[in-house]
Amino acid sequence: TYNSPLSAIGNVIGHATNMFGTASEVTYLDGMAAVGGITNGGKAFTVGHYSFGPDNYRADWRDHLFVHEYGHYIQAQRMGWSYISLVGLPSLISCSREGGWHGVTHDYRWFEQNASKLGAEHFDKHYGSGADGYDSASEHFF
User: Fold this and answer.
1) What percent of the chain has pLDDT over 90?
2) Model pTM score
């Protein structure tokens, strides 16, 4: 329930993209829906438990973009509404500035690094031992 207001907003975005024919595919894994066909250039964003990405974007633990966005989902679960001011808006501003923001590029902002770490820890824990091709030498290992 802590994250439900954000998920309600994500639900509205998801239905709107579906109504206007933008969404190409919807998949689901571990509590998060991934909606493909929404963004360009390998970028994605997450609102509540909805994640919006480019064509062929799927809820798959082997997809690094999905794993990163799943980390944002974990952040939102922990932060609730404060996610918007602590992560959402700063991330939106940061990714819109090509050369970085105050000398730091988007990928190296604390909230982006933390999202990658949280997503990787989740999927390493739940899919890391015994999953097909998932070991420390695998390209899918985080």
Assistant:
1) 44
2) 0.86
